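Mods, move this if it's the wrong board.
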Amino acid sequence: MSIVKVIMHNSVSLDGSFTDFEVNMGLHYQIAGRYRADASLIGSNTIKTGNEIYGGEIPLENEADFNKPNRDAALPYWVIMDTKGITKGLLHTCRSFEFCRDVIVLISEQTGEDYINYLKERSYDYLVCGEENIDYEAALGALNTNYGIETLLVDSGPALNGVLLGKGLVDEISLLVSPVLVGGRSDKLLAHINTGGQNVSLKFIACENVEKDYLLLRYEVLKGDL
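Not the wrong board. Structure tokens:
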């Protein structure tokens, strides 16, 4: 059992879609802040897509982007998984976010030197966790040992959520349900869980009307059968 508590937090439509509707970002992050996580785990594609959808034109790096920010130690780290260097040229958009303590990047032994040099030149912390792909259990252990991370919030898409749930590493699921149906265009958030054909059993924690027409659902993940 991991010593790090992992909370999967996402916004979904009523029919479980992760995309093709307008997310209430203010409410999403307001709820995320309730969990007082030490870090948020984010996939590289989520960073790339987020910049494309919400960021507009990528700003040029400035001198401050090459140095670690001096921010409140109570703020969460952003832990970004990127074995292929997808976020090269984008990480300063994360570091500049005022509610991010700083960025930690998870890479593998096969990550290219070009990307590693990019990280070193800008003083980004990185952890090598796995030969080709991320070894998530090792990564959680390293984050706890090196940074004292005890609670990790996963704010990412179906692929990463599916992997973590399939490996039995998620302790709690938090879903902000938006008052909209996406229908046939929907990209189901939890459609990519690989548990070898077994169901994932859940225990109800809470249901809350957090804002007009929005519901927050919380479940504990029961891991005995995984």
